[in-house]
Amino acid sequence: MPERNPVPPASPAAAIVPGCGVRLLAANIWWTMAVIFCATFIAYFPALHGGFIWDDDGHVTRPALGSLHGLWRIWFELGATQQYYPLLHSAFWVEHRLWGDATLGYHLITLGLHAGAACLVAVILRRLGIPGAFLAAMIFALHPVQVESVAWITEQKNTLSTVLYLCAALAYLRFDVERKPAFYVTALILFILGLLTKTVTATLPAALLVVFWWQRGRLSWKRDILPLAPWFAVGAIAGLFTAWVERKLIGAEGAAFDLTLIQRCLLAGRVIWFYLGKLFWPARLTFIYPHWDIKPAVAWQWLPLAGVLALGVLLWLGRNRSRAPLAAFLFFVGSLFPVLGFFNVFPFLYSFVADHFQYLPSLGIITLVSAGLVRVTEQDSAALRKLSGALAVLLLAVLGALTWRQAHDYHDIRTIFRATISRNPDCWMAYNNLGSDLMDNTSGLQEAISDFQRSLQLKPDYAEAHYNLGKAFVHLGRLPEAIEQYRKALRIRPEHADTYDALGNALYQEGQVAEAIEQYRQALRIQPLHANAHNNLGVALAQLGRLPEAIEQYQEVLRLRPDNVEAHNNLGIALVRSGRLPEAIEQYQQALQLNPNHAGVRTDLGIALAEMGRLPEAIEQYEQALHLQPDYPEVHLNLANALLRSNRATEAIGQYKEALRLKPGFAEAHFNLGIALIQTGQATEAIAQFEQLLRITPNDTQARNILARLRAYQQTGSLER
What is the pLDDT of residue 585? Predict the structure, then answer.
């Protein structure tokens, strides 16, 4: 920040592109905003085609929160969302209601917020009389270090919170001049809304004090500090609460975060220089940077901290000549403070630095550099003015091109993590996440396994990679290996409910139902609200015939997640087996209200209706199930049985034959087809079916007896009973 310009705030001095002293955009702020929006849209155009990456599914509203009750949970239930940022998740809630999982809408909103933040930067710097407002706004909009915050949907919290931060700052600056309570209240409300979006905005009152010190050379307790005291209190409470959430709910604690105070100080020094370096030379930007090993015993690791302290002292000593460099440095470091290493932040598990951490702090340095470039244009040398103008245009062009290129990395999960691996080959997290995405496609399972194994080579105690490797083995049917991986994951991370649940599933598939039940119960001891574990425990209990307990588990799932289709269906099956057919039908109908295109639920509803003798309704359900899933042999069999019971034997025969076409060794279809053929007087064809059945199941006494009677009938003309 330079010394305050004597020109009044309404002066157009900010809307300048250096060069020949020509004000290309003059005073019209609307033209300034239009240019910023157009340039930002062009530079970030590749990002508009990007899909969901990494933890976007933890931020974009999931179905369980899509209702009005879900909105209530966002605000009043800790753990309902990944982080307690209720205003952010309310915005995602509205966006999800508008366009669901279509990513274009989210990208347009985030891009618009980023461009809006850049416009607010121009407005605020113009109000403060700082030269180079337009140039600073353009650099902020086009700098590639901001791509992570704009192209990654999760980081809408960065763009939205920054817009609220800047709006609050703008309102407070007006209050500072006019001292009207309305502006103070407006600013405070915007500040609180910013905190509810991302608590990095807690640094705003300190930033305002830096601005006032830069303007006046001193701070007044009554005029400057006292009005912001409530802001500091609110910001501190919000920051401490977020730090608690990071540790206790998100998991930012444990050995990986156990740093001494000295280590944290060394880390802070290194982080500051890292971010400064990326601002001035944005090369090899990557999603996950290498994880540093902070060792106080290594002499050179003290140099960054010493350099920061030395720079701070030099800027302080030079404050009488210009307070601007120190003010910019204080803004930069102060805004970075929450992520300098003094507080545990979950991403520190992977890297101590990330581009999105300096989204807001970068404004201090960008403003200082832009103002300095514009000051050069005030020199008498025409050649120097032309050169500075050309350099400014070239700078924006290069930044825009770098942003365009960087935005391509955020196309999808595979692209972002392959790009990460190419720049950070030892990134064990990237291998794990790449494998997780590949695992969603059966053809990519072997490559996924290789990625998980590579991740474990780099970090043998990485519980999540063991867990994912276990899931991959399950997909391949290699259950003993999956069980081994799950047990390794639990030795490293014994309090992970999902791993117990997955281990229970693998044991259940191996036929070890009793041990599976114990694993599900362990998952629920750790996480009593684990809906999947309740559902899986219900399935296992039902398998052992413990239907009342199974029903209780399914009901608990539905208490937690009333929209869980699988739980409604499983509860219906258990109720059928318990002879409670009307209640079962009600559960199936509720499931179909949630998902009318669920062929399995329609089949089970048909079975319940058939057992109650409501054959026309059962037939309708079977037919709808087959419309949804025509290659479902069991449904063809059920439909044929219902048709046969409805005295529609000819139609039943066609369905039995279709079941056998889809599943040639289907013993029950052979048997029932034989019975239908007998009813229609086709004894020879019936004999062929029972002969085929006995080749499949030679010990079927009933089929053997019927076959003997049919052969006797062919000889004597009568069936003996």
Answer: 95
Query: Count of H helices and E strands in the chain?
Result: 33, 0
Alpha-carbon dihedral sign for residues 619, 622, 628, 630: negative
CA distance 3 to 19: 22
In single-letter form, the type of residue at position 125 comes to L
Tokens representing residue 334 in the block: 């102060």
Q: Is 665 helix (H, G, I), strand (E, B) or coil?
A: coil
Q: What angle do CA 64, 67, 73 make, to 5 degrees?
A: 70
Q: In angstroms, what CA-CA distances link 680 with 15, 394, 673, 690? A: 91, 88, 11, 16
User: What secondary structure letter does DSSP report for 4?
Assistant: P
Give residue 685's identity as a one-letter amino acid code.
Answer: E
Query: Which residues, 6 or more positions from 328, have their beta carbon under 8 angstroms from its beta carbon?
Result: 1, 364, 365, 367, 368
pLDDT higher than threshold 60 for residue 299: yes
**Tokens for 638?**
């059920």
The string of pLDDT tens digits covering residues 466-476 is 999 999 999 99
Q: Which two tokens stand for residue 153?
A: 């949907």
Least confident stretch, 10-14, 328-332, 408-412, 478-482: 10-14
- pLDDT class of 120 with cuts at 50, 70, 90: very high
- The secondary structure of residue 511, as a DSSP letter, is T
- Contacts of 238-243 with CB under 8 Å at 24 or more apart are 238/195, 238/199, 238/202, 239/199, 239/202, 239/338, 239/343, 241/84, 241/199, 242/83, 242/84, 242/199, 243/343, 243/344
Which amino acid is located at 199 in the chain?
Answer: T
pLDDT over threshold 80, residue 27: no
Separation of alpha carbons 46 and 198, rounded Å: 26
Is 456:462 a contact under the CB 8 Å cutoff? Answer: yes
Position 720 scores a pLDDT of 47
Could you say which DSSP state residue 262 is in? H
Q: Are 202 and 190 in contact (CB under 8 A)?
A: no
* Paired tokens of 683: 């004894």
Res 15 pLDDT > 80: no
Rounded average pLDDT over 344-365: 95
| Dihedral in degrees, nearest 10, Cα atoms 156, 159, 164, 170 | -170
| pLDDT tens readout for residues 672-686 | 999 999 999 898 899
Spatial separation of the C-alpha atoms in residues 644 and 577, rounded to whole Å = 23
pLDDT more than 90, % of the chain:
82
* Cα dist from 204 to 134, 157, 209, 222, whole Å: 22, 16, 9, 18
CA-to-CA distance for 644 and 677, rounded, in angstroms?
Answer: 11
List pLDDT tens digits, range 490-525: 999 998 999 999 999 999 999 999 999 999 999 999
Neighbouring CB atoms inside 10 A of 87's CB total 20
- Note the pLDDT tens digit of each residue in 624-641: 999 999 999 999 999 999
**Measured distance CA(35)–CA(51) in Å, rounded:** 27
Q: Please say whether the beta carbons of 85 and 196 come within 8 A.
A: yes
Q: Which of helix, strand or coil describes residue 116?
A: helix
Going by C-alpha positions, the residue among 134, 124, 217, 138 that lies closest to residue 166 is 124
pLDDT tier at 30 (50, 70, 90 boundaries)? confident
- Please give the Cα distance from 445 to 465 (Å, whole number): 14
Helices (H), 378-478: 382-407, 413-423, 428-438, 445-458, 463-475
Pair of tokens at residue 364: 């201090």
Q: Which residue, 269, 357, 364, is CA-closest to 309?
A: 269
Residue 648: half-sphere exposure toward Cβ, Cα within 13 Å: 14
Tokens of 478: 């290699």
What residue type is 414 in one-letter code?
R
Of 190, 201, 281, 212, nearest to 235 (Cα)? 201
Q: How confident is the model at residue 379 (pLDDT cuts 50, 70, 90)?
A: low
How far apart (Å, rounded) are the C-alpha atoms in residues 670 and 656? 8
Which position has the token pair 């007998």? 678
The whole-number average pLDDT for the span 291-302 is 96
